[in-house]
Amino acid sequence: MAHRSLVNLLLFGNRTISCIFALRSLRTVACGASSAPTAGFKPDKVAVVTKTTRYEFEQQRYRYAGLSEEDLKQLLAMKGSSYSGLLERHNIHNNNVEHIVKSLQREGIQVRVVKRGEYNEEVVRWADAVISAGGDGTMLLVASKVLSKDKPVVGVNTDPERSEGHLCLPVRYTRAFPEALEKLCRGEFRWLWRQRIRLHLEGTGINPTPVDLHDQQLSLEQHNRAHRITTTDTHQRSGMLHQTVSEPCLLPVRSLNEIFIGESLSSRVKVKPFKPHANFLLHRASYYEISVDDGPWEKQKSSGLSICTGTGSKAWSYNINKLAEQAVEEVLRIGMSEAGADLPLSPEFIQKVTDSYNESLVFSPAQRRLLYSVREPIVNRVFSSSRQRGFASKVCVRSRCWDACMVVDGGTSFEFNDGAIATVSMSEEDQLRTVLLEN
Amino acid sequence: MAHRSLVNLLLFGNRTISCIFALRSLRTVACGASSAPTAGFKPDKVAVVTKTTRYEFEQQRYRYAGLSEEDLKQLLAMKGSSYSGLLERHNIHNNNVEHIVKSLQREGIQVRVVKRGEYNEEVVRWADAVISAGGDGTMLLVASKVLSKDKPVVGVNTDPERSEGHLCLPVRYTRAFPEALEKLCRGEFRWLWRQRIRLHLEGTGINPTPVDLHDQQLSLEQHNRAHRITTTDTHQRSGMLHQTVSEPCLLPVRSLNEIFIGESLSSRVKVKPFKPHANFLLHRASYYEISVDDGPWEKQKSSGLSICTGTGSKAWSYNINKLAEQAVEEVLRIGMSEAGADLPLSPEFIQKVTDSYNESLVFSPAQRRLLYSVREPIVNRVFSSSRQRGFASKVCVRSRCWDACMVVDGGTSFEFNDGAIATVSMSEEDQLRTVLLEN
Asked: Which residues does UniProt assign to the signal peptide (chains A, B) (predicted)?
């Protein structure tokens, strides 16, 4: 009955009138927890945040060199890239964005389109809901500025042929967005509250200024300033070096996928003070100590530590832990050989075991627990390691790194050097409200 | 008999006289290939290349801030590091270096001690043999400037408690170096020729200037200059953009452990030309195409590609491919469940299977073949991947990356962007001559 009134309102009423089940009064329905119908959802104001296409990136990259479009085309061709291919993806994305925007406007919804570089807290405050128009990366960016669990975020995959879109609506809604809007309005969907991670940081000389890794405008100087071990301060306060360790500080970020801790692969600090950091791809192992659920501290050496959510268990964490059929087959073969057993290892059987193993790496985004994974653990005469992977409510990490970072969702980094301690946990208020639509 | 004459020469003859089995006339004995005695080896001139200790690094790091030793001690303490601990390792290293140097001098050998920053081709030319005094990292550096297969390189682990020293002599020789020298002189050892990797690079806009990732003096500007896509040149030659792809160029490096190809984890090129790169730890997947032994090209997306030697099969490649007991147990458990079988999975059994699997990842340094490993392959709707790991004589890689590098032994990087093609292979003349001493 409520649905019908809603439909009537839409068809016959003033389209700018928010339906009576306005955003603020919506009943919340946890994923799978109840079969009660979800109240309809029709926001007045929607911000659409769009990704930067590769075509745009290449254009900007060479813009300062004053290249014409023809020059750009030839340059890309020389590199074996296809100018027309990039332009095609660019146009597909833009067409899909236009489709979304027009669909919203037809429903009388105020729309504001912002490029990822223009997206900020003000946009979030203005909007009743935020749509991410891009891929999973754009969703992560959008989520990163939504700290309240009441503001819905919806992802639309604007290039399904090129983008996975795990965090986006099913691909069919990309070109059928009005259908999605209709279902939202009717309440024919579920809310999915994705648990996110919060971070406390403590230790001396830590400047908890986040560095936005995607910020194209950030110069190296600004990066250094943000991340510098306060050696100048230390020098000035040399009489006060007995200063105590700072209190744990709750960082102003929430991670939707994962926290990754590891050496930042930078070369060493210059001996001469005014030469900037030269940062290179250098494989240096990460040293740290880890304590799970207030357990004993354990020293580890590895390629880094990933601590992910249920959402993130399908992302980088999945790739860290996933096994290839080749490895599974070899393990089973050796197992049979060692046991003197004779089990037929058909390709179908191998695939079944592999899929089963890999599926066990994924868990529900709504679960309030973390999955920690040690990436490429180094076990030798000097170091040992217990579990490579496990669930937890809380993970503490003490850095023993030379020049490490804590990276949130691959997009924001915090300095995390020798002596710093990070506490990784989850809290109910950190959830992100997203939409689950039937395919 | 030859041995006795040798001993006599040493004990009674002029110590500066090279023994009759001088370096140049040594018979070569491949590892395990022959039981004929190795001719003795006594070089006239030995260069000893020493590592930088962490203590020295921390000192240099803060030197510009004008900190006193006392300040440094307090600063380290605040970070939870132990100043006295670092100093202790520093002294242990230096004592061991002194032990090596004195042992050499006692044999009448000319010794030249060089820090890693001072080590160059001139030192290699001067020396009859080069000793690496440090850990495996120092050995890689030493090897990187020895391109001839006739110049012996010997590694001594100067901090066995902290360093693995896979590439070094057995640890007991660290404090008993005269014993090692004696055995060398008597021929009581084997030569181990470690096969190395050579690299050809082709593609437009490639500047094959290697960047030394450990070079503390290299400013970011120099790095950019070395690695810049020649956009300025392109602009000036805009009338000549039809320039053909450059010929494959053999790079002046030989890899002892591995080549690693991957996105350099840098943020994007600045829109404004005079703002330097800001490079951060950003997990971006690497896109490339791979062709094994002239097979068909296959597109891949992963965390990077490792191509290693037998020597390197115990290094990074090993950690990429190694399985934890936890994973092996899970695979076997699922396998048993899927097959409806009931095999007891005791901890000892799991450990046996795990060790057996991991041992199969390692092969002899003398073998002239490569092992390629795809690190964290991304397999989804968009990308697929065949073998995650395999042997080959030749591997070709075409970059589809935005900002990638090819890293040689974790120490030297080459730009490897969209369109560039690397050919990775081995040649008999690229071997490194090292020493195999009984424990």
From this structure: none
* Cβ atoms within 10 Å, residue B209: 15
ipTM, interface predicted TM-score of the complex: 0.77
> Measuring CA to CA, which residue among A190, A173, A172 is closest to residue A181?
A173
- Give the separation between CA B254 and CA B146, rounded to whole angstroms: 9
Cross-chain Cβ contact B332/A328 below 8 Å: no
- Name the DSSP letter for residue A311: T
Residues, chain B, total?
439
Contact B260 A283 (CB under 8 A): yes
Class of domain B43-187: alpha beta
* Domain locations along chain A: 43-187, 195-310+364-429
The backbone torsions φ and ψ at residue B275, rounded to the nearest 5 degrees and listed phi first, read: -95, 125
Closest CA of chain A from B334, distance in Å: 6
Residue among B79, B331, B405 minimizing CB distance to A357: B331
d(CA B13, CA B36): 26
**Average pLDDT, stretch A56-68?**
77
- Residue A248: what pLDDT? 86
pLDDT tens readout for residues A327-365: 999 999 999 999 998 888 999 999 999 999 999 999 999
Whether B43-187 shares its CATH topology with B195-310+364-429 is answered no
pTM: 0.78
* Chain B residue closest in CA terms to A344: B339
Domain B195-310+364-429 is found in CATH 2.115.10.20: no
Q: What are the tokens at A86?
A: 């990039």
Contact by Cβ (8 Å): B51, B135: yes
